[in-house]
Specification:
Blueprint: E1 7-10, H1 14-25, E2 30-34, H2 76-89, E3 96-98, E4 102-107, E5 116-120, E6 125-128, E7 130-133, E8 140-141, E9 153-156, E10 170-173, H3 177-187, E11 193-196, E12 203-204, E13 207-208, E14 211-212, H4 217-220, H5 224-239, E15 262-263, H6 266-272, E16 276-279, E17 282-286, E18 289-292, E19 297-299, E20 302-305, E21 309-310, E22 323-324, E23 327-328, E24 330-331, E25 336-337, E26 343-345, E27 350-351, H7 356-374, H8 380-387, E28 395-396, H9 398-417
């Protein structure tokens, strides 16, 4: 390994910490830059009611389980404390420059073949052998254009903390996990709550028979199609169908691989208790008056926008990447861009299930790419762009992501043995 080689990690959230720990363990010299004051990213400022939807038995960094004292589904505060403990235990803080943002990264040589020039918010300019992008995809808030006409209190889920910030009649727009959490939070404070659902959704409990849903051995032993049927049977036994919940539309599909379920039991509970009402999608907003797609109207004092986030790389000229659906195209278990060398992504994907193991796995794979490059194998991003079908998805079935990871490992093994010979793909990265 070259003594001159040095790498930059952008961000000290969960993905950045996994990259920093893994790469330093592999002997790489790494600097990490974090614009905030501490590690942990959004876990320090997300809404107070947030808990993991994956169990503690699978939700941890490699070699550092969550404390035995933690409940099965820990709170936001406990997870933030866990990540601070991880950084302290392994001495990661000394490699992180806090309160310093990466303002710009520029490729050196053709497509980054000679490394990257990094400009920091304090004005410093440094050259690095490679850059690991771990700035996350849950921070650039997306509010639809229809919201511009609203004159009441408007809060995105990324800024919401608790019910002390909201008042009066509350409309929650968005019915994913965050939207349902926010609606339940307001309902449990005895507020008048409506949730807008433009289409139906399958709801799934966190546990079956008291066991985390991903750890039910009988389901895990089944092939995907049968596992889906069995899971839907259990869901219908526990919750019934959408017809049991006034105003709720039918799901567009019952194939859980095509549309991930919402992991929430309490929303359905409060709908049946009349604390949460269901409305269709939004057509227009004028002042505080909202018109829904079925022609009905209502006045709301607060709108909570659980409408997701945009994928943003503010430090990179976006024209250097290939994009689809607002997300960069990637290969190799979602770690390599298709057009740039010595640039790597950790955490710009969310295979269903616990995420920390994904970040650690991606970081180990990146370490292999970095070693291979330092040993003289050039243009790895270009090679894999030719070997695999590039993908832009963030949400992806875990099994499909794992298949691509296995394929990537096989191809990288072959490149390491004989770099000049390309390896044929066995399958496209599709489901």
């Amino acid at each position: 390994m070259s003594k001159q080689a040095r790498y930059c990690v952008i961000g000290a959230g969960a993905a950045g910490l996994a990259a920093l720990k893994t790469l330093t363990d592999e002997g790489f010299a790494v600097d990490c830059f974090e614009k905030g004051e501490q590690v942990g990213g959004h876990w320090h400022h997300d809404y107070d009611a947030l808990h993991l939807i994956t169990p503690k038995s699978s939700s941890f960094f490699d070699g550092f389980p969550l404390p035995a004292s933690y409940p099965m589904y820990p709170s936001r505060e406990l997870i933030a404390a866990y990540m601070c403990s991880y950084a302290e235990t392994f001495g990661l803080n000394r490699m992180i420059t806090f309160r310093t943002a990466v303002e710009r990264i520029e490729p050196l040589g053709e497509r980054g073949r000679d490394g990257w020039r990094v400009t920091l918010s304090d004005g410093a300019v440094r050259d690095y052998t490679g850059v690991i992008v771990a700035n996350g995809h849950l921070w650039d808030q997306n509010i639809p254009a229809v919201g511009k006409g609203y004159t009441g209190r408007s809060i995105h889920s990324g800024s919401y903390r608790n019910t002390s910030e909201i008042e009066g009649r509350v409309l929650v727009v968005g019915f994913g996990n965050s939207g349902c959490d926010l609606a339940v939070d307001a309902a449990q404070s005895r507020m008048d709550v409506t949730i807008a659902m433009r289409c139906g959704q399958v709801f799934q409990p966190k546990t079956f028979f008291g066991v985390p849903r991903g750890e039910v051995a009988a389901l895990n032993a089944l092939p995907p199609e049968l596992a889906n049927m069995a899971t839907m049977s259990l869901i219908n036994t526990v919750f019934g169908t959408h017809e049991n919940y006034p105003g709720m539309p039918a799901p567009e599909t019952y194939d859980l691989e095509k549309q991930p379920p919402v992991v929430n039991s309490l929303l359905l509970y409060w709908i049946q208790h009349g604390r949460i009402k269901v409305a269709p999608g939004l057509r227009a907003i004028d002042g505080k008056r909202v018109t829904f797609t079925d022609g009905t109207e209502g006045e709301f004092d607060t709108i909570l926008w659980a409408t997701g986030f945009k994928t943003t790389l503010p430090f990179l000229d976006t024209s250097l990447l290939e994009w689809r659906d607002g997300v960069p195209l990637r290969t190799a278990a979602m770690t390599l861009p298709t057009t740039l060398e010595s640039l790597y992504f950790v955490g710009l994907t969310a295979p269903r299930g616990a995420q920390w193991p994904v970040y650690c796995t991606q970081s180990r794979l990146i370490a292999r790419f970095m070693k291979q490059r330092e040993q003289g194998t050039d243009d790895l991003a270009e090679r894999f762009a030719g070997l695999q079908t590039a993908d832009s998805r963030i949400d992806i079935v875990r099994r499909v992501w794992q298949q691509n990871l296995d394929e990537t490992t096989r191809q990288l093994d072959a490149i390491a043995q004989q770099p000049a010979i390309a390896v044929e793909t066995e399958s496209d990265f599709v489901v």
